[in-house]
Amino acid sequence: MRLEGWHLIIIIVLALVLFAAPKLPSMARSIGQSMRIFKSEVREMKKDGSSETKDSQDASDAVEGKVVGHPDAKAKNNGETDVPPANRV
After folding, report:
1. Domain range enclosing 44
2. In sequence order, which residues have a C-beta less than 8 Å from that of residue 68 and are 6 or more positions away?
3. Would residue 62 count as lying in a domain?
4. How far apart are the C-alpha atoms of 82 and 67, rounded to whole Å?
5. How does DSSP classify residue 71?
6. Are 16 and 24 in contact, with CB atoms under 8 Å apart?
7. CB 31 within 8 A of CB 38
8. Number of folded domains in the chain?
């Protein structure tokens, strides 16, 4: 006799009912609570994302900065880099 996928599912369900019956309500409650938290977090992320797109249209908070090159760029820049020397001995 060969066990297929649905046989294994039935065996797992029976084992859960027989051995974990007292804990099933608390497990279902915690799973439901986790799903509610997950849904609310996804909803908050979507709401935050839509407010960020509105804010990104206002470029008043833009910050200018200098891009620092990699230390291996010495060969390309005749030994000059934007990276400060290491102070560790």
Report:
1. 22-53
2. 82, 83
3. no
4. 9
5. G
6. yes
7. no
8. 1
